[in-house]
Amino acid sequence: MGSAREALLDAAYEAIVAGDWTGARMADLAARAGVSRQTLYNEFGNRDQLVAALVLREAERFRALTGQAAREAPGDVGDATAAAVTAALTAALDNPLIKATLTDDTSGLLPYLTTRSAAIMDVFREDSIAIFTERWPEPAEHPEVRAEVGWISETAFRLVISHLIVATEPVETTSRHIAEVVRRLMRDLTTT
Questions:
Q1: Distance between CA atoms of 160 and 84, rounded to whole angstroms?
Q2: Are 149 and 129 in contact (CB under 8 A)?
Q3: Which residues does UniProt assign to DNA binding (predicted)?
Q4: What is the model's pTM?
Q5: Which of 83, 112, 171, 177 is the Cys-Cys partner for 55 at CB 3.0 to 4.6 Å?
Q6: 96-103 and 2-17 helices cross at what angle (nearest 10)?
């Protein structure tokens, strides 16, 4: 069933990118994927669960990209953050699903980046915490402080999403600014 699931996610992706999401019926999506409508319902239950799964699949792709960028970046936690943010925002500029989410008001997908973004945030949280503590080991030495690193990770995530939705400066500038926020929060965390 794994291939049917991917085919259905691909069909949803294609419908969204083509601007057909709003009018697409479950039967249309199933036909586009080459499976029965019942298979679609068995895999996802409903349209909301299908799009939620698609969003999580895309988030995993971004997590792999940003995690690799952060781990390959030389330097401190800020440098790793800047590399990850640059990778995320640059990839988002060319990502058809992100473009459709931000430009098609009728698709109903924008909440997955805003009010319904908790699941996406969860995808990035553990990776971010690991990278932050690799690059700034002091929290690992203070267990009561280490818990706050998750909050710093969430703050960085929210800043990236905000800049993705309303870009006010070049990607490199945004990356440097978010990196500096992370550095300051980590520094403040370890000096209190």
A1: 10
A2: yes
A3: 25-44
A4: 0.89
A5: 112
A6: 50
